[in-house]
Amino acid sequence: MVRLIPEKDDTDTEAALQLAFNQSEGDIVILGGTGSRLDHVLGNISILGQGLSRGRQVFLLDSHNRIRLIDSDLTVAREELYGPYISLFPYGDQVEGVTLEGFKYPLVHATMEGFTSLGVSNEVTAQVGKIHLEHGVLIVIEAKE
């Protein structure tokens, strides 16, 4: 057990993530990070990026969603998806060179910009879906119904 003071510059979840980085290897799954406090949900999505510089995947997981950030190509097997829907959002201003193969709604060398719902509710139709990006960070949400 680790005791934290309430007045600090990070959330309890971020402090736990730092502890996980220091005391474990491989992927990290954060359970309970998508509750009723939207400010904390957005903060938790933001801290997923700390895994990118460490070469580790960090996931937010609840009964309906699995969320991660990517800054390089990702291949997902349809049968291993958390749910049938996969949504992509740029984290930051824009993501350049986005190509989606094996998806119901493909993209070819597209620029995904903020302030749009372009990447909501896509589906992998092939055995595997391939997400390629050249520059930027994508929020990837695998969602159940």
Explain this structure to me?
With 145 residues, the chain is α+β, with helices and mostly antiparallel strands. It has 2 domains: 62 residues, no CATH class; 81 residues, Jelly Rolls (Sandwich). It has 2 helices and 9 strands, in the order αβαββββββββ. The strands form 2 sheets. It has a 5-stranded mixed beta sheet, with helices on one face. A 4-stranded antiparallel beta sheet has the order 4-8-6-7, with no helix packed on it. A hairpin with a 3-residue loop joins β2 and β3. The chain is globular, with a radius of gyration of 16 Å. It starts with 11 loop residues before the first helix and ends with a strand. The model has no long low-confidence stretch (mean pLDDT 95).
Short description:
The chain has 145 residues and is an alpha+beta fold. It folds into two domains: 1-62, no CATH class; 65-145, Jelly Rolls.
